[in-house]
Every structure is written in C-alpha cells, then in structure tokens.
Amino acid sequence: MLRLLRAPASICPQGRIESNRKEVIMRNGGDKRGKAADRRRRKQWMLAMFGDHNTAPCVHCGKGLDYSTIEADRIKPGGSYARTNIQPSCRPCNVRRGNSPITPYKPAMPDNSHTADRK
To answer: Is the model's pTM score more than 0.90?
Structure first.
C-alpha cells in the first residue's frame, strides 16, 4: 500500500497559508526493492533459475510468466529480496498472498555451487 506524505503548510509574510507542495509517495515499510536495475536483474535471474530464461511458472497457480508479468514474491514476507527469499509469482497470486507466511512449497534452489552467487 502506498502512502502520500505532504510537507506541512507554512504562513508566508503576507499572512497567506502556503503549502509546500512536495509530495512524496512512500511504500509501507520503506522501499527494499532496490533500484530499477536491481529489479530488472532479479526478474532475469528468476526467469533463468525457475524457467527457461524466457518464461517461468508462478509458484502458486502454475501460470506461465514472462519478463513483463513476473513478480518477486518474498518467501518470508517483509524480508529481504535476497535470492534465497524470492520466488516467481503472478500479480494476482502475489496480491492474494499478501503478508501470509504460507506458500505452497519452498522452491528448490538450483545447485550453482560451481558459480559465484551474485546478488
């Protein structure tokens, strides 16, 4: 859920109330998602690890997801977006799950011990 934060109003020398129209949209709990480049890399990583680089199934309903529809669903709600805590999900399933800790299964992480684990 997004909250709209507004700067407080102030009184100008002429006695009029001026509003500092600096409006900032904040996500609940701050923004742990990272920069846009981080989110793009996360999507590409999920498509590669859980699918065939182009599509991956939603862990909840099995629907095929592509780059434009895949979302990073955190296994531990409110936790980090570390690779060990995300799984591919479609938007409806991700919203329906919300902050519930229940997930159909803990996804099997691929064994990439021969490569460096980059975030």
So the answer is: no
